[in-house]
Amino acid sequence: MTLVSCMVLAALVFSIGLACVIVHRNAVRVLMGIELMFNAVNINLVAINYFHPQPAGAHGVFLTGQLFAVFVITVAAAEAAVGLAIVLAVYRNLRTINVDQASTLKF
Q1: Closest by alpha carbon to 27, among 105, 85, 104, 93?
Q2: What's the whole-model pTM score?
Q3: Of the segments 12-21, 43-52, 64-73, which one has the largest average pLDDT value?
Q4: Distance (Å, rounded) from C-alpha 27 to C-alpha 32?
Q5: Close Cβ partners of 47 (under 8 Å, ≥ 6 residues apart)
Q6: Domain spans, the chain
Q7: Rounded average pLDDT over 20-41
Q8: Mean pLDDT over residues 85-94, rounded?
Q9: Spatial separation of the C-alpha atoms in residues 91 and 87, rounded to whole Å
Q10: What is the dihedral of CA 81, 83, 88, 91, to 10 degrees?
Q11: Which of 19, 45, 55, 89 could crosslink 65 through cysteines, CB 3.0-4.6 Å?
């Protein structure tokens, strides 16, 4: 396993997530595409940290890539919770989760 193969994998996962966001009109599928893009970022962060580690400091090895990945996972979990709450609120009002029909929420 090399850094290039990890980057190709991350690019493939990111492309699939981007295609989900662009193509699908279902709000849950759009959220799943965003989660795939977050996971691609995590693959990049961990791979770069694994193949290019930072020098050891006073407190041991810095795990910067892994720490950023944990923060991204935390943000993704919060995004999923808020996104699903919005989807449920839209479904209660419009009886659909199609993002094209959610334009009625504009002022």
Answers
A1: 85
A2: 0.82
A3: 12-21
A4: 9
A5: 3, 6, 7, 10, 65
A6: 3-101
A7: 94
A8: 88
A9: 6
A10: -170
A11: 45
